[in-house]
């Protein structure tokens, strides 16, 4: 019986199938459990990146904590080897429940309590301990089938584990995430985990269990599956409630594209706000202050051909197209979902003045870095309206190599304007300036402030929103010498006072200057929060 410690090596046990078939079934369980375990890890990394930001840091925290916890789990499994079947059954039920519910709990913590850092570490530690205990227990179980060829058994177990991890790692981005989403994908993975673990113990090793433990394990697995099934049924309602808690009650559109989550809020009495992956990208009430300051100083001079990198919302394009003598505008945007929303959503089309309906506008769906590498041309103005450089995924778009590529397609006498993050983060802002100068540009720094210095609209706890909306740091650059900051005589009538405040905006930015910084490159990104 497994509820008593073994005092001597067990004999080959009687199974409901031939020993070789039993061996293969255990290896299949190893395969499934390894696939589920890696899905849990990737779910935590993806959610942490989305909810907290800075993917390198979050991935490092999750993976390092989990690997450490797996070592603890392996040591703890030694105490359960004499009760391997019961231990493995309870472990898999716990792993299915914890791993399957982890995404929902993390999202709930972020939505209602404003943070998910502590739950992230707790889940990483718990899941890691449970995953680490799997293989030692499975080794004990497979040795109950046959004591022969112990070395080959170890090799088979590890091979099944590694192949399962490969399948789980590929299934997450290509199947689970696009088809089911993060919340449902985690719940379904938990259910698969529970079924695989329960089947191995309750059927294959049922003779290794007392009737009492068979009943207990069956009850536990049924309860776990019931909880996961109930959560799956309620996931849409949960997501809507959590979204209201995060974005407010007036969510108009919420879609997950192939690149990111896009949310539009606003009502009849309030201009729309646009959030990308939980970050406030556009605040409708004062976005014109940012976009006028971004575009119009760069349009002082020749501007027949204009290139916008990013800016899928169409708002920078709106300002460019206000110049009647612009002959061609190219917008390079990574996410076609954002462009489609900017084309079709009535509130956004009103805000961007139907910029994508203008025949001068051409949209290219591509990564800006890759597109610049492959493109030949000469643009009078390049507007870099890209995500904040402090976001890890964006650092290559603020690298020395990126600005070399931009310089290659800039016409003689052309201007490049860059959104460089808020001057309230001077190290990031002035690293962009240093990188531009290293690429052969002369630069002029300036900034523009939002209409308010308080919260940026939407929930006050919503990260990065207030900072991004109240202090936009900008750099205008030209090859060789620094361009003089100003608004051209042919500029349209502006809604903001940017034309009158450019001088003081330059002084305000210069007061934050840091020296001694080094350029950011692809292999050595220098941007920090």
From TrEMBL:
Positions annotated to bind spermidine: 291, 313
Native organism: Streptomyces kurssanovii
UniProt record similarity statement: Belongs to the spermidine/spermine synthase family.
Subunit (UniProt): Homodimer or homotetramer.
Protein name from the UniProt record: Polyamine aminopropyltransferase
Enzyme class, spelled out: transferase
Summary of the function given for this chain in its UniProt record: Catalyzes the irreversible transfer of a propylamine group from the amino donor S-adenosylmethioninamine (decarboxy-AdoMet) to putrescine (1,4-diaminobutane) to yield spermidine.
Keyword list, A-Z: Cell membrane, Membrane, Polyamine biosynthesis, Spermidine biosynthesis, Transferase, Transmembrane, Transmembrane helix
Pfam families the record matches: Spermine_synth
Transmembrane segment boundaries: 25-52, 58-77, 89-114, 120-142, 154-177, 183-205, 217-235
Topological type in the membrane: Multi-pass membrane protein
Catalytic residues identified in the record: 385
GO molecular function, one term: spermidine synthase activity
Cell compartments where the protein resides: Cell membrane
């Amino acid at each position: 019986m497994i509820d008593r410690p073994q005092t001597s090596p067990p004999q080959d046990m009687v199974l409901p199938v031939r020993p070789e078939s039993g061996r293969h079934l255990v290896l299949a369980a190893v395969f499934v459990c390894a696939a589920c375990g890696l899905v849990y890890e990737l779910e935590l990394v993806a959610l942490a990146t989305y909810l907290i930001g800075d993917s390198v840091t979050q991935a490092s925290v999750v993976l390092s904590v989990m690997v450490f916890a797996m070592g603890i789990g392996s040591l703890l499994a030694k105490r359960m080897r004499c009760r391997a079947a019961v231990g493995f059954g309870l472990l898999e039920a716990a792993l299915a429940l914890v791993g399957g519910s982890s995404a929902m709990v993390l999202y709930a913590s972020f939505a209602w309590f404003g943070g998910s850092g502590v739950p992230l570490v707790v889940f990483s530690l718990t899941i890691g301990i449970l995953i680490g205990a799997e293989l030692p227990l499975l080794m004990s179980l497979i040795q109950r089938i046959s004591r022969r060829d112990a070395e080959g058994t170890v090799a088979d177990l590890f091979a099944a584990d590694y192949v399962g991890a490969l399948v789980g790692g590929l299934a997450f981005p290509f199947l689970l995430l696009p088809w089911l989403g993060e919340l449902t994908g985690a719940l379904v993975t938990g259910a698969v985990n529970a079924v695989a673990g329960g089947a191995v113990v309750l059927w294959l090793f049922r003779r290794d269990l007392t009737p009492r433990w068979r009943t207990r394990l069956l009850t536990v697995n049924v309860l776990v599956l019931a909880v996961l099934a109930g959560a799956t049924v309620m996931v849409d309602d949960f997501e809507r409630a959590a979204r209201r808690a995060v974005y407010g009650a007036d969510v108009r559109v919420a879609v997950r594209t192939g690149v990111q989550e896009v949310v539009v809020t606003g009502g009849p009495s309030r201009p729309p706000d646009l959030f990308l992956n939980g970050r406030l990208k556009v605040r409708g009430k004062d976005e014109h202050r940012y976009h006028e300051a971004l575009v119009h100083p760069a349009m002082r001079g020749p501007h027949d051909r204009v290139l916008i990198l990013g800016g899928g919302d169409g708002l920078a394009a709106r300002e460019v197209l206000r110049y009647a003598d612009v002959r061609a505008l190219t917008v390079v945007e990574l996410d076609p979902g954002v462009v489609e929303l900017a084309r079709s959503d009535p509130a956004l089309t009103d805000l961007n003045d139907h910029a994508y309906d203008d025949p001068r506008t051409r949209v290219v769906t591509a990564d800006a870095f890759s597109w610049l590498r492959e493109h030949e041309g000469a643009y009078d103005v390049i507007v870099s309206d890209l995500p904040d450089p402090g976001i890890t995924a964006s650092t290559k778009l603020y690298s020395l190599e990126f600005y070399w590529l931009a310089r290659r397609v800039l016409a003689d006498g052309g201007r490049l304007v860059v959104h460089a993050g808020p001057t309230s983060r001077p190290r990031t802002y002035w690293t962009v300036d240093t990188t531009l100068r290293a690429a052969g540009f002369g630069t002029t720094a300036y900034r523009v402030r939002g209409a308010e210095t308080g919260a940026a609209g939407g929930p006050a706890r919503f990260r990065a929103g207030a900072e991004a909306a109240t202090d936009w740091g900008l750099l205008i650059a030209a090859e060789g010498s620094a361009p003089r900051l100003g608004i051209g005589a042919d500029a349209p009538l502006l809604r903001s006072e940017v034309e009158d405040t450019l001088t003081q905006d330059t002084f305000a930015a210069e007061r934050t200057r840091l020296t001694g910084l080094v350029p950011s490159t692809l292999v050595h990104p220098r941007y920090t929060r």
